[in-house]
Amino acid sequence: MPNPAVRQPRSPMAAPRSFLWSRRIFLTLLTVFVLLPVYVMISSSLKPLEDVSGKFAWIPSGLTVSPYFDIWDTVPLADYFMNSLIVAGAATVCSVTIAVFAAYAVSRYSFRGKRVFTVTVLSTQMFPGILFLLPLFLIYVNIGNATGIALFGSRGGLILTYLTFSLPFSIWMLIGYFDSVPRDLDEAAKVDGCGPLGALFRVIVPAAIPGIVAVAVYAFMTAWGEVLFASVMTNDTTRTLAVGLQGYSTQNDVYWNQIMAASLVVSLPVVAGFLLLQRYLVTGLTAGAVK
Amino acid sequence: MTTTAAHSAGERTARKHDPGAAPRRRRPGRLRRIGLPYLLLLPALLLELLVHLLPMVIGIVVSFKELTQFYIRDWGTAPWAGLDNYSLTVDFDAPVGEALLRSFLTTCLFTVLSVGLCWLLGAAAAIYMQEAFRGRGILRTLFLVPYALPVYAAVITWAFMFQRDNGLVNHVLHDQLGLTDSAPFWLIGDNSFIALLVVSVWKGWPFAFLIIMAGLQNIPRDIYEAAALDGAGVWQQIRRITLPSLRPVNQVLVLVLFLWTFNDFNTPFVLFGKAAPEAADLISIHIYQSSFQTWNFGTGSAMSVLLLLFLLVVTGVYLWLTSRGRKAADA
């Protein structure tokens, strides 16, 4: 808990009324803006189909939980869910592991090309996804033709793609975290006979757990929410939620109540994870930018 | 190939200024010690090469080829096209070039408005919430919800809200407030630009809020106290202390927001489906459509390369200008 003394008002003078009133109005309006879609999502997911097909109503005419049962039958949502879990989970584990090694090297060793490495890796972050969508599509198709390893349309290809999406930022965040672990600790471990990897896993990783958790949540969210590559690189059996959710609109009907229910269900894992771990994640996300 | 070159290069530097870097005990051989950092970086490097750099090189090569659907299975055999793809995309009198130019200008306007609004909301909220008050913690958590929600779930909800006949937006504007004569369409026609902007700001501002809030914590409190003693009111403190102190944070933040917004594909794709209306035809969607609907990868790649060049130039100029400004301010 932060020291209460630090939390005092910024100035000894009381804030003027103009400040307090404008703050009240601004934050109220902003809260309405932020929560409006959340309210629509929750309330519409509990409405019968007639309600969401006709004029919008703030208050549902009747409440029903049937959309939450129907969503699993209208489209194979459970399969999409599973695909998303496998893809995002595997991408997270791989991305975090690889980032830990890379960040360790950058944080603890001096070597030629260090700056080039960090700058290059970070700058891949700025390239638009569309730029390597086409070539990656070609590469995966050709690797498949040449070696028989199916990357295009498979979960493996998607995992490979997603883990590199979160990798640059993960490495960057972890470098910050590892830098904040005192060097004396791992030097001491090395004196005690740990090798470089021993120092990493016995000393640095345990001390940087909050950072690693933050990176994991970030990597998972990235993979869970990606749309562009999911829409091109998956087929019927490997489809993820990002694409599968569009299956609720048919030629004749759009099941808006089911779409809202499904949106809520697929959001729960990431929103819950994010809010539970927000303390770690926020420090991790912001540490780099503020430095 | 790259690795071996890097190895010997690394050996040279390591020899030059290694002494004293680490206590010399139990060293299992010089080569292993020097190679270790590269070994640790290897997986990350390989993956970045495969998924980012190699595709980029191929993308550049393909942009000089006439790659249509007949050659996809074996794209190496596609005939060379020279600069044809480029001259086609920048011929602004012809339909392809004209559409690209319009999409580019739309994206520019959209990005400026979206980044500006995101920054404004984020900065205002962060500054208003700098001091503790009752409910601040809850508000902060609520404000992060748009950032935490998966893009498609959030944007599909907005798509529902923007429906002409059964959406919330028309219900409020038309039925309840009576602001319009007839219920307007939001997801087709010119209004789609506004719809896209609203969704983009809703989704993007919490990130600005987060970063600015972290930046505010780095401002030493005594500056405010000294200013207050000198008689500066809250508004003056914000103008004279808070905003100037945020400068370095803003430099990174605005750049990141710019790149994300300019390249945004997810929001328009989920909001409008595969065919975005002309008024909201962002560049990523435009390239996607030109490539995957006509299966003309050569032209699509040429557009991508031009986009990359544009982003590189803007980023370079931006960093140069802002760093110069900062140095001048520091001196």
What does this structure look like?
The complex is a heterodimer of chains A (291) and B (331). Chain A is mainly α. Chain A folds into 2 domains: 15-67, no CATH class; 71-290, MetI-like (MetI-like fold). In chain A, 73% of the residues lie in helices and 0% in strands. Chain A contains 14 helices and no strands. The longest helix of chain A is centred in the first third of the chain and has 32 residues, at 77-108. Chain A starts with 16 loop residues before the first helix and ends with a helix. Helices cover 71% and strands 0% of the residues of chain B. The two termini of chain B are 45 Å apart. Chain B has 2 domains: 1-13 and 29-51, no CATH class; 94-294, Orthogonal Bundle (MetI-like fold). Chains A and B meet through helix 1, helix 4, helix 5, helix 6 and helix 7 of A and helix 1, helix 2, helix 4, helix 5 and helix 6 of B.
Fold topology:
The complex is a heterodimer of chains A (291) and B (331).
Chain A: H1 17-45, H2 49-53, H3 66-74, H4 77-108, H5 114-123, H6 129-147, H7 155-180, H8 183-191, H9 196-207, H10 209-225, H11 228-233, H12 241-244, H13 256-276, H14 278-290
Chain B: H1 2-17, H2 30-62, H3 84-89, H4 95-128, H5 136-143, H6 145-148, H7 151-161, H8 168-176, H9 191-217, H10 221-229, H11 234-245, H12 247-262, H13 266-272, H14 283-292, H15 297-330
Separation, N- and C-terminal Cα atoms of chain A: 23 Å
Number of E strands of chain A: 0
Which descriptor suits the 3D outline of chain B?
A: globular
Tell me the CATH superfamily of the largest domain in chain A.
Answer: MetI-like
Task: Work out the radius of gyration of chain A.
Answer: 24 Å
Uncertain runs of chain B: 1-26
Which CATH class of the largest domain in chain A applies here? Mainly Alpha
Mean pLDDT of chain A: 83
Determine the CATH superfamily of the largest domain in chain B: MetI-like
Low-confidence stretches of chain A: 1-12
What number of structural domains do the residues of chain A give?
2
Helix content of chain B: over 70%
* Tally of discrete structural domains of chain B: 2
Based on helices, strands and strand pairing, what is the structural class of chain A? mainly alpha
Structural class of chain B: mainly alpha
Largest sheet of chain A: none
Q: Which shape of chain A, going by the Cα principal axes?
A: globular
Helical segment count of chain B: 15
Number of helices of chain A: 14
Sheet of most strands of chain B: none
